[in-house]
Amino acid sequence: MYTVMNMSKTFEKLQVHLDKIMAFETARSLFEWDDQTIAPFEAADYTSKVIGIISDEYMKALINDDVRKLLNKLKEEKEQEQLTDDEKAIVKELDKTYVQLESIPPEEYRAFNELASISNRAWAKAKKDNNYEYFAPYLKEIIEYKKKFAGYRAKKGEEPYEVLLGDFEECFKIKDLDIFFDKIKKEIVPLLKKVSQKSDTIDKSYNYLNYDIDKQRDFCRYLAGYLGFDFNKGVLGESAHPFTLQLHNHDVRITNSFIEDNLESAMFSVIHETGHALYEMNISDSITQTPVGTGASMGMHESQSRLFENIIGRSEAFWTPIYDKLVDTYPDNLKDINLEHFIKGINKAEPSLIRTEADELSYSLHIIIRYEIEKMIFSGEADVDKLPELWNKKYEEYLGLTPPTDSQGILQDTHWSYGEFGYFPSYAIGSAVASQIHAKMMEVMQFEDYLLEGNLTPIREYLKDAIHKYGATKNTNQILKDITGEEFNADYYVNYLKEKYQKLYNLK
Amino acid sequence: MYTVMNMSKTFEKLQVHLDKIMAFETARSLFEWDDQTIAPFEAADYTSKVIGIISDEYMKALINDDVRKLLNKLKEEKEQEQLTDDEKAIVKELDKTYVQLESIPPEEYRAFNELASISNRAWAKAKKDNNYEYFAPYLKEIIEYKKKFAGYRAKKGEEPYEVLLGDFEECFKIKDLDIFFDKIKKEIVPLLKKVSQKSDTIDKSYNYLNYDIDKQRDFCRYLAGYLGFDFNKGVLGESAHPFTLQLHNHDVRITNSFIEDNLESAMFSVIHETGHALYEMNISDSITQTPVGTGASMGMHESQSRLFENIIGRSEAFWTPIYDKLVDTYPDNLKDINLEHFIKGINKAEPSLIRTEADELSYSLHIIIRYEIEKMIFSGEADVDKLPELWNKKYEEYLGLTPPTDSQGILQDTHWSYGEFGYFPSYAIGSAVASQIHAKMMEVMQFEDYLLEGNLTPIREYLKDAIHKYGATKNTNQILKDITGEEFNADYYVNYLKEKYQKLYNLK
What we know:
The first copy, chain A, is mostly helical. Chain A is 63% helix and 3% strand. The first copy, chain A, has 2 domains: 9-132; 174-504, Neurolysin, domain 3 (Orthogonal Bundle), CATH 1.10.1370. Chain A has a 3-stranded mixed sheet, sandwiched between helices.
């Protein structure tokens, strides 16, 4: 929803196209939400035809001569002078999309999308059957396409993997990630080893008792509201895997899923998704429903969910005002578990095999393994047929564990099956960015006191003004620079983890 | 979803357009569902912009030179010979839409839609404030537009109201409805008087005790499933007012709404909406997602909901196998209410002021009042400023009651506020058609025995094969003729009501 003010005539013409593009995108989002939450089981075949047509219309509205001409004109200096900063950001974002989409011949793009869909189903079957060999041929084909597509856009001498990384996070090159991840490996691998030797000092058995799901549902809803999720501008639903999706800044939707014998799972999912949702709800009215009306990057988005899930949500200060309410919800299970016990429990760290179930300390090691393998795939150093061995070797090296099956190893994540390479690092970037922002917030406000008072408004307002409202008009480093005075710096993350876990496990 | 088989080349070209038209229509339906069920309160302003764009795209996909040329060509005899029956019906239906939409100059159409939206809000305010005078000027303007629009399409000498009626039900002319309604007035008005004199012979106080809403929700879900609602092809949601909506025959959605101190309300709503839903679920795969992939008419649709709600749902045979389950759900309230008592209670009839709350016996009198007033409005016999007096006079005459306020009188229904004239008769047609079909079913199958056995499958299968699967490829009279050997005949309805209520109130 873009307000007309001294608008450039050319941008005004583009706006009509943008509105149509965003309308189709919003419709697709609603179908996606519906499919994941309530659509009946047998609807998919018929509805997918509708979604296919809407997607075609979206592409036609986006990629056509009229939009291309307007975009090229708006990139000229004379036109740029007449644009507001938001408009410039929209033009830049649209140009990025054009460069991405137009570099690929339409037949190849279509063939790849068909392959991705088939390959994703093959992966699901291979994972179910623990049969990597069945999936490998699809994966090879996917990788060939991604190499070719990256090649179309690569600057002279640029690695294909560099191009793929750039699609998710323009501020991070391979060399930046190498530095970042080396730092983590050096500090966290040994720390995790020490921690796991003291595993039995923390009891977490209470977490796996029976927790009535209706009560979990109510408590999670309470948590979302407590964190500031605005139910007048959002919906809390349920789906197989939790996710966040927005139609615009006045309609942001999150889902949760519940496990009866796991207290933590749904609670930290809803805190995580609320972090994403607050970002989307706080995006400025002037840019919502435009191409920059979403988070700055995947990593930046993840920084907000992880700030809430881990740094806030697993802190003693956060739980101090509300832990009694949780105990009152489940008195039989929790009456003998005091706050200190609970805080230790929710922060217990142990090497594990599955990324999505990993704790805060070991999480980024899972990412590093994927990053290193992806790099090797695209530099030609890794043979796709030998990926399971490579995977298992790295799990042994960084986490001290060997997956007993490929389903719990190389086949665990869906991303590669449809060509999402270069995405995984965003998760680790998110955690590190969260720590860097947190360090600054500790400096400029009584962060812990607010949590202890149960007053999250100042924290939310800070994030809104420093990050959320800008959407994608700034990139990750611009945001960090404006808040903290420096660009991305992984030291905050490493220090945060070291300090937290040394204290938790009495390692000093 | 149209299967390609020996297809005419011209129809094949049309099919591409039809797919696009249906995709936009499906998207609009999903936004409508979402808005009525879960969309957050503040989303409307932003989402309505998206819906507006999708609606524009729908109109552009529907009304354009390409479709017009294909349609005109397909109407030629030579082309018709190459079409299947379904295709002929699609061409006919599309032509009807074209005649309706193309007769109105686009500026007038747009102006009317804007007025309708404003007028609807004015009606809501007038109803809230019990202020008919506030609404009257909007209503006058709406009526002028509807007269003008009907005039564009009226054949020589045809009444404007005749044109409006035809939009909802092509088989019923003013003269048919006059005969139908005169018959009802003659028989039902005196019967209702006798019934209301014996009102105290039936106790219904149990219905207004406290009924836990969670239990109502579970029982209503059970009822929908018992009737044959397929949860793999449908969704049961909640909204302020119950409704049915379909994306296609594999995704049919109904809603319900609950009142804590009214047992009946939600139960009969879900039975009613399930009747609509079964119709949509049973439409043949070959015509779903085409212009004839819905009910034959409003009246025919209503016949299915009312067959289930009233004829089946309020019968002793239906409740015999399941009444114990209801008593077990609410033992405190119902333990002393036996089945006979309950059946009398759910069929108790009394004159009342509000159409939507009327019982089966008095319902059509509410419709007749609206029909007679609509006829007078369009023939110029009724002065819009004097409608409240006219309304109240007729309520006194047919129901023996005078509305104490206009909010409970002339302002009670939303339909006129956005120009829906000619729609009300469909409700009464639906009840009468249901009786005619029911009479035939009693002849050809052990209807009551099936209900007593709790086996609704044969009833559902019959309706599917006789009515549902055809969608709108046949009209109401064609369907009735094919099933019963005669066209619409209101005697079945009058006889059904007389027999039922004379027995219930011991009037013979």
